[in-house]
Amino acid sequence: MAELKKMYKTILDDHFPDDLTITLGDTTLVYRKRTWKIPDEKTGELIEKGLRYGENPDQEAAVYELVNGNLTIAGCEYIRPGKGLVSAITEEDMVQAGKHPGKTNLTDLDNALNILKYLTQRPAAVILKHNNPCGAAYGGTIEEAYLKADMADRIAAFGGCLALNRPVDKATAEAIAANYLEVVAAPEFEGGALSVLTKKKNLRIIRLRQMAELAGYRDMKYIDFKALIDGGLIIQQSQTNKIRKKEDFQLAKTTFKGVEYTIERHPTDSEYEDMLFGWNIEQGISSNSVIYVKDGVTVGIGTGEQDRVGVAEIAVFKAYTKYADALCFKRHGIALKVFELEVKEGKRKRDELDEIAVETKQARGGLIGSAMISDAFFPFRDGVDVGIEEGVSAIVHAGGSERDFESITACNEADPKVTMVFTGQRVFKH
Fold first, then answer.
1. Structural contact between residues 217 and 78, judged by C-beta atoms closer than 8 angstroms
2. How confident is the prediction for the chain on average, in pLDDT?
3. Cis peptide bond upstream of 288, omega within 30
4. Which domains does the chain have, with CATH numbers?
C-alpha cells in the first residue's frame, strides 16, 4: 500500500527533447518544451521540471509551446506563436505549483478554456474532471458562478480543475477553499484571495491574464494530432462552434415522404439563452453526450456513451442524484451517501431521507423547464422522449437524421408543447 501511495507523489524525469521541430510540406513548426522552476516538495530548493507525469504515474510527459512558424492548409491559417495559453504558463503564472502539475491538470485547464472562450460576456465558472465538465454556470458575480457550478455536482467536483473568467476576490477564494480542488485558474487574484488559497498547500494556483482575450480564440484553429498504436498519425483541424447567437439556430423542420414537419412552438428568450449556454458547454464534452441546463447552470451531464438514448437516461439519473445530494448538503451539511449511511446506523431519521427523495422526485431532479442539448442528431425519438418525460421545455441537436420527423412530432405532441431547434452542426469530441 505504501508503494501505491508513493506512486502518486512521484515526479518523473522526462527524456523528451528541449525543442521539437515538425515539418508539414514546406512549413516548419518549432516548439519549445515548457519547464518551471519550482520548490522541491522535500527540500524546498528550486528545481527545474516539466510535467509531473502523464495520464498515469508511470508515463513520462512533456508540454511544448509553439515558438516559431505558422501553418496554412487549404486556406486555413492556424494559431501563430505568441498566442500561448496553457502551454505558455510561466513561473510567474504558476502562483503556487502545489503537488506540481501533471498532464491531466493542464489538459483539464485547456478544455476549460475551450468552453470559457464562448462564455466571456458574464461571470462564469467551469469545473472539469477527466477532461469533461462536471459543473458549469453563469452568475451575477464570480462567487455566485462558482457556487452554482460546484453545487451542480459537488461529488464530481472533488479534486477537479476550476477555471473562472473573472478575477478572484477574497469571498470567492473562501468559497473555493472550503472544498478540495486540484487546480484553480483565473485572470487575477485580488483583495486577499491568495492569502486564503495558498493555505491549501497542494492546490495548483494559476494566473492566466490571457483570459481577458479568450473571445479572440473562438475562430482560431489548431492542428489536432492523434497518434496511433502503429506509430501513424491522424491530423485534423480543430472544431469551430458555428452557433454564436440565437439567430444561428434553425427552428426544427424536415420533410419525410413528401410530408413537411415543423416545430409548432417557438423558443422564448430565456430558452434561447439556455440553449446557447448548453451548446457552448457541449464544445468541451466527450461524445456521445446529452446534457440538461437550466437558468445558466448545468443540471445533468451525460458523457462518452455509445448510444444516445442511454446517455440521455444517464444524464437524467445524474440530475436526480445531484439534486438530492444538494438538498441534503444544504439542510444537513453532509453528502447524501454519508446521510444514507447514518440512517442505516440509526444516527439519522429515515423520515428526513424520505423527504429528500420525495422532493427530488417532485422536482424531477431540477429538469422541469430545462433545455436538453445533444452533440449530434437523435437517430430515433426515444432519446427525445427521455427528456420530454422529465419536463424539458426545449431541445437542441444537430438535426439531419432521416427520422427527424419523429423527434419533431414528439415535441408537438407533448403537453405542454416542447420547442426544438437544429444547429446544422455536429460537435463530436473524442
1. no
2. 93
3. yes
4. 2-217 (3.40.140.20), 246-422 (3.40.140.20)
